[in-house]
Amino acid sequence: MRLFQCQSCGNAVHFDNTTCVECGHRLGYLPDRCIVTAVEPAADGWHALADRSRLYLFCGNAEIAGCNWLMPAADGPGLCLCCRHNRLVPDLSNPGHAEAWRRVEAAKRWLFYSLTRWRLPLPDPLTDPRNGLVFDVLADGTGADGRVKPVLTGHDAGVITVAVAEADDAEREARRHAMGEPYRTLLGHFRHEIGHYYWDRLVRDGGLLGDCRANFGDDRDDYAAALRRYYAWGPPANWRDRYISAYAASHPWEDFAETWAHYTHIVDALETAHAFGLVVRPRGPGGAALAAAIDFDPYRQGAVPDLVAAWVPVTVALNALNRSLGQPDLYPFVLPEAVTAKLAFVHTLVRAAGRI
């Protein structure tokens, strides 16, 4: 994520800020320019200090969901590029659901930051009913027997379902422990599930099944049976040699989605490091091997080896800092050669689809 600047006073501002704490200007995000801008009220909308060529309106979800994205006033009031993909939301009359949904939407906007930076296709359900990307954010229900019917986060034919319960930190952490996972976040869910969506759009519909199978395995393997095997027996003993996570070993579809998610993690975190001028220069024996300077834009970088060469030292440093504070590793994953090759496939796919 980039570090932004208030055009009114020059203060540093962040992607999800809605007000500049220095000068008090309201802030909005321009997705077509990938920039946070200070705005000033006008008769029929808002003047964006980063683009005075036209008026803007805030997304219709600005108040209820805390969305700070802007849209051209000429398009009329409505939902922004991110929110227009929503289909179902939980019952917002429930105060707990309302706050949880705001957290879900905040994570989704971080996802869409990456998708728009890459200029990936984002058909919405109105303009493309067949291939449009749809999000359902749902609360657990109750069956006829009175038992809770939990919502499962997942993807099916262009519809990404997110359990609103995942916005509760305690609940999400309990599920992480129950599943034996080293990492579980709302943003991670979004990045994983969008990987399934783009497998459909870019791999299956893009005529790249053969190339994908050469890297991830044969997706024609029975998916339900593969998951039953995984949950019954766990991953193969040597999964760390070939997969980014244990779950990635369950089926080629999950391997692709996990790899896609981690590619996004790496690129966006490196952009943050770049924005802050982060340099890793360890002192002591072996320090030279862990040196890195993130002096490039990872969203436009041309080779995965360069991304990995910068990312590994950053993760070593961040993990060491977390341990010093009594926290678990921030990035508890390793990148063996086989995973790097899979990241390279996703990298090529993203750059081709986004014409980067």
Secondary structure layout:
Elements: E1 4-5, E2 12-13, E3 26-30, E4 35-42, E5 45-48, E6 51-58, H1 62-65, E7 70-72, E8 86-88, H2 95-117, E9 134-138, E10 141-142, E11 148-149, E12 154-156, E13 159-163, H3 169-179, H4 186-204, H5 209-216, H6 223-233, H7 252-275, E14 279-280, E15 292-293, H8 304-324, H9 337-354
Parallel strand pairs: 8-9, 9-13
Antiparallel strand pairs: 1-2, 3-4, 4-5, 5-6, 6-7, 10-11, 12-13, 14-15
Helix pairs in contact: 2-4, 4-7, 7-8, 7-9
Question: Based on CA inertia axes, which overall geometry fits?
Answer: globular
Poorly predicted regions: none
Which value, in Å, is the CA radius of gyration? 21 Å
Please estimate the helix content.
25-40%
> In terms of structural class, how would the helical and strand content be classed?
alpha+beta
What's the multimeric state?
A: single chain
> Main sheet: which strands, in order across?
3-4-5-6-7
Q: Average pLDDT, to the nearest integer?
A: 94
| Spatial separation of the terminal alpha carbons | 18 Å
What share of residues are in beta strands? 15-25%
> How many beta strands in the DSSP annotation?
15
The major sheet is characterized as: 5 strands, antiparallel
Order of helices and strands: EEEEEEHEEHEEEEEHHHHHEEHH
Instruction: Please tally the helical runs, counting DSSP H or I stretches of 4 or more residues.
Output: 9
